[in-house]
Design goal:
Shape: globular
Structural class: alpha/beta
Transmembrane segments: 220-241
Number of helices: 9
Strand content: 15-25%
Domain Methyltransferase: 56-151
InterPro entries: Methyltransf_25, SAM-dependent_MTases_sf
GO molecular function: methyltransferase activity
GO biological process, one term: methylation
Order of helices and strands: HHHEHEHEEHEHEHHE
Strand order of the largest sheet: 3-2-1-4-5-7-6
């Protein structure tokens, strides 16, 4: 399935006013299980640091929802949000200017070639980006070169345990834009170490509760929207029924360690 056209439709629908854009961000925060995991990690990383003037790279900023969250955590933090798509950069720049959120800059960059000329960032955030980039080790090397000593990179990406909804050799990714179906947990840590990172940690997300929630809250609605835009009318009623179950499932997934899962949360330190 081509996921980007559906994302563009959703973005356009909620981009009419700053209020609707904020509603969109709040809906993403509620619906996307990866956001639950990332917010938990960011709160842990930011504990005791909110009064420090830190530099953060949002690497593959997309709709800008994580830059919005980070800049709301502390006015002292400065976020550089980069994406390869012109329309995303222009759209986010316009929204953040309208809400007078001044501690973020959006810029078009290709992560395969982009690196800062000096050690700049205390944190690099990469959410559902690496599965779209073939030259992943080059990107990790760029992250490493652009980070301050002691800085951390935080990555969310599909795993090889059914990530991208692939469960066998004869299946292809649910999201056609993916260049890999998922990372082996040891593989991505080895790649980060080969890029220079001294210490890595990784754990599975989207365990059994998360897989059920993802199908109910994301996969089935996306399939419906891909079949017909008329399902936009039905979606609010659909979510009224299924979301209470997804809420419980998301909480269970975020607060449980999983032996396996279709997603990975990976951290590495310089």
């Amino acid at each position: 399935m081509q996921y980007d056209p559906i994302k563009r439709v959703l973005g356009d629908a909620f981009n009419k006013t700053p209020f609707l854009r904020k509603v969109f961000y709040n809906l993403l925060d509620l619906l996307l299980l990866r956001t639950w995991h990332i917010h938990k990690e960011l709160r842990a990383w930011g504990k005791g640091r909110r009064q420090q003037p830190l530099q953060i790279l949002d690497a593959g900023s997309g709709f800008g929802q994580y830059s919005y969250y980070l800049t709301g955590m502390s006015e002292k933090w400065r976020v550089l949000a980069v994406d390869v798509k012109d329309e995303q950069i222009a759209d986010c720049t316009n929204f953040f200017q309208k809400i007078n959120r001044r501690n973020v800059i959006f810029r078009k960059e290709d992560l395969v070639t982009y690196r800062e000329p000096q050690e700049t960032f205390d944190l690099v955030l990469s959410v559902d980006v690496m599965e779209h980039i073939l030259e992943d080790v080059e990107v990790f090397k760029n992250f490493y070169a652009s980070m301050k000593p002691g800085g951390m990179v935080l990555i969310s990406t599909p795993s090889d345990q059914g990530g991208s909804d692939v469960h066998g050799d004869d299946e292809s990714s649910f999201i056609e834009e993916h260049v890999r179906d998922g990372y082996n947990i040891q593989e991505i840590q080895n790649k980060l170490k080969s890029a220079g990172f001294s210490r890595t940690e990784a754990h599975y997300s989207y365990g059994t509760p998360g897989k059920i929630s993802w199908r109910l809250s994301m996969k089935y609605p996306i399939l419906m929207l891909g079949a017909s835009k008329l399902f936009f009318v039905i979606l609010p009623f659909y979510y009224l029924i299924v979301y209470p179950f997804c809420l419980v499932l998301n909480w269970l997934d975020t607060n449980t360690r999983h032996e396996t899962g279709t997603g990975l949360i990976v951290k590495a330190w310089k």
